[in-house]
Amino acid sequence: MLKASFFPCKVTSLRFVTNRRQNHLKAAITKMEFSITQPDDWHLHLRDGELLEAVVSHSSNHFGRAIIMPNLKPPVTKTVEAMAYRESILKALPETSTFTPMMTLYLTDTTTPHEIKLARESGVVFAVKLYPAGATTNSQHGVTDLFGKCLPVLEEMVQQNMPLLVHGEVTSPEVDVFDREKVFIDEVLSPLIRKFPRLKVVMEHITTTDAVKFVESCNDGFVAATVTPQHLALNRNSLFQGGLQPHSYCLPILKRETHRQALVSAVTSGSKRFFIGTDSAPHERRNKECPCGCAGIYNAPVALSAYAKVFEEAGALDKLEAFTSFNGPDFYGLPRNTSKIKLTKTPWKVPASYSYSWGDIIPMFAGETLEWLPSPA
Ligand SMILES: NC(=O)N[C@@H](CC(=O)O)C(=O)O
Ligand SMILES: [Zn+2]
Ligand SMILES: [Zn+2]
């Protein structure tokens, strides 16, 4: 098994020392290194079994906590299952790791209000995930009729202050795949929020100007959004650059450049409503490079470098820390991390693949050279 070396380049000594944090951040823009509070990942797929063991350190090396998606086969629909899954994640972590998995439940048509109470009492389940049935990878057990089947559960979630995390796309085959997020906002999310104005909702992995505007229009503190590195760094041309590119295929699908620019403006605006959520979604190479390839981009090894690049190019590196390390815990009502990580402007080469006895995983930006190498501060 290839040892996935997370910090492949040695950090050169370009240390910039200052006592004043403001100066420090400003200096970072022109200098070569700066520290930020340790980030969390508010949307992560760790899978289970061999895949979990292969990928977990790529997240735990950089992130303090992560919201763990429940779309396993079979999905994590019960609190007891979430507790067992949590144990298997803890077991797979490197020995000295302090990474905290924050578990979620997969909402179905038959989830009960009692299950939400159990989830809250467990202390380890932090949210419930809505997958419209058929919208994305392993969503076949998802919700078929939110307003018809889930109202008592949603009411209980308001009572328990349990956030609803949403894969925001409609599934009707007649809706164009590039419009599914916008139609979801109009047909599902807006009515949902009108009905439950005190329900905490995170619109996951937003991809459009429409989603940015929608989130900005909602009540403060109740609706927020996560944004992935791929939707900030790439537009839909990447799907076809020099041929069909299965490793750029994720859901929601990459959108046109104007939408990417709206996302960059949103995350660099200083708004507290937008925060990091990588949606790192590993699939074995053979399940990506095949006639009916899976949706999902494996970005855990490159996520922080990619976000930093986007913020740097927007002239907003001073806004990076709030996005990666403050807005998420503030929205969830959790303390911010106290440890730090360092980002160094050192070129490092992303491995072309991560290879294991059972197969390969191809990371985002495979074989490319990135900067802003993360390491412990
Ligand atoms: N984003 C993706 O394209 N895929 C995710 C599911 C999801 O987050 O929608 C996966 O689990 O593979
Ligand atoms: Zn999703
Ligand atoms: Zn996801």
Automatic annotation (TrEMBL):
Alphabetized UniProt keyword annotations: Hydrolase, Metal-binding, Pyrimidine biosynthesis, Zinc
Reaction catalysed by this enzyme: (S)-dihydroorotate + H2O = N-carbamoyl-L-aspartate + H(+)
First-tier enzyme category under EC: hydrolase
CDD domains xrefs: DHOase
Gene3D superfamilies for this protein: Metal-dependent hydrolases
Pathway(s) per entry: Pyrimidine metabolism; UMP biosynthesis via de novo pathway; (S)-dihydroorotate from bicarbonate: step 3/3
Superkingdom field: Eukaryota
Domain Amidohydrolase-related: 41-352
GO BP terms, alphabetized: pyrimidine nucleotide biosynthetic process
Keyword Metal-binding included in the entry's annotation: yes
Database matches in NCBIfam families: pyrC_dimer
Family: Belongs to the metallo-dependent hydrolases superfamily. DHOase family. Class II DHOase subfamily.
Designated name of the protein: Dihydroorotase, mitochondrial
Organism in which the protein naturally occurs: Abeliophyllum distichum
